[in-house]
Amino acid sequence: MASIFFSVLLALSVLSSPFLLNANAHTKLGFSADLIHRDSPKSPFYNPTETSAQRLRNAVHRSVNRVVHFNGKDASVNSPQTEITSDGGEYLMNVSLGTPPFPIMAIADTGSDLLWTQCKPCDDCYTQDDPLFDPKASSTYKDVSCSSSQCTSLESQATCSTEDNTCSYTLSYGDKSYTKGNVAADTVTLGSTDNRPVQLKNIVIGCGHNNAGTFSKKGSGIIGLGGGSVSLISQLGDSIDGKFSYCLVPLSSENDKTSKINFGTNAVVSGNGSVSTPLITKSQATFYYLTLESVSVGSKNIKYPSVSDSYGSSSKGNIIIDSGTTLTMFSTDFYSELEDAVASSIDAERTNDPQNVLSLCYSATAKLNVPVITMHFDGADVKLDSSNAFIQISEDLVCFAFRGDDQLAIYGNIAQMNFLVGYDTVSKTVSFKPADCAKM
């Protein structure tokens, strides 16, 4: 779903003589690629006139807006449209479509499933800096039929033309943006850090011919890395044993090191310091749900409330893990209790955030004794560093990177930085292991 990921450019360079892989084959793969944050100098979104604090402030605002990305998707099983936000991810991905390979740059999103891009002819498209993908120029492109499993796997997002029996899709986003086009299959080429690109054949994609809304002209679609049946992760399937992981370099890092995303045998998270928690399956298969039992601030343990949702389930799967959201979001009541515990442990004068986005802030010149904050997931205690808890959002302001929001709980990417985070969609676990991501 739209969400590993934050706005980052996944730099996947496509080289000649790639190792060929049929996406349906049982070849076992292990490869890694660079994840470049959207505010990195290597990203097209980079604004050299902004300070690092201004970039963090912008990421905080995107994080708040991204809640719409998830809100309402689990509200109705029969909802005809997908409620996610359009330009909400924090990372971008460079991949290539078709034969010969045509490079596209799109948001890499753990909160979305379908890989889609703008295509020629574009009946009604948003302005895009890069050229549009021309399906007629690809020898491996083919529209899928209404009766195909690829079409039926899209469920309510797919419609069929009675005239030519071709499958079409419609994705509507929470901010009224949308994409409409043909469901197709084509070759997708991914690069890797060992310079051995991987070609994946017959990957289901969306070829958008009618797209509008708040999409950025610097991107050309979305690459779905969620848990649904048409996501890239699910389509890679047996070849990666359902495994992927990432290691996010802290945003404050000055050495311009890139984050990494790993697939298959490269994605195993194990060894000293690693802990695992169950991945909970819900009716909305796109999102990755975990179970948070409590949060500790020093020796004070704050139990996370059990609230039944519309399906009657209780505390299981009560928080979404998402690399595309900067902040960590909790219900307002729980957040207030957490904030009080953190504030009472810090002997410094509080300062107001002039934009009223974050509520626990201090002067950047104050010496903060940040308490140890531990996330107690089911079976996994994740101890946060001070850099996972506080961020500098202006020259003179440092704030708690958590926020109250009654729409839903999200475990955001600031809390995940300098952890190797592994997803195993077969064993249904998410694992965490402290790491120096700049050295990976």
Can you characterise this structure?
This is Peptidase A1 domain-containing protein. One of its GO terms (cellular component) is extracellular region. This protein has about 450 residues and is mainly β. It folds into 2 domains: about 200 residues, Cathepsin D, subunit A, domain 1 (Beta Barrel), CATH 2.40.70; about 170 residues, Cathepsin D, subunit A, domain 1 (Beta Barrel). It is about 10% helix and about 35% strand. The chain has a 6-stranded mixed barrel. Strands 18-17-23-24 form a 4-stranded antiparallel β-sheet.
Residue stretches low in confidence (pLDDT < 50, at least 5 long) are 1-25, 72-88, 309-313
Q: Report the CATH C-level class of the largest domain.
A: Mainly Beta
Number of domains: 2
Tell me the span between the first and last alpha carbons.
26 Å
Strand order within the widest beta sheet? 4-5-12-6-11-10
Strand content: 35-45%
The value of Rg in angstroms is 21 Å
What class would the helix/strand composition place it in? mainly beta
Q: How much helicity do the residues have? A: 10-25%
What's the count of strands?
Answer: 30
Question: How would you sum up the major sheet?
Answer: 6 strands, mixed, barrel
Main location: secreted
GO molecular function, one term: aspartic-type endopeptidase activity
Subcellular location: Secreted
Protein name: Peptidase A1 domain-containing protein
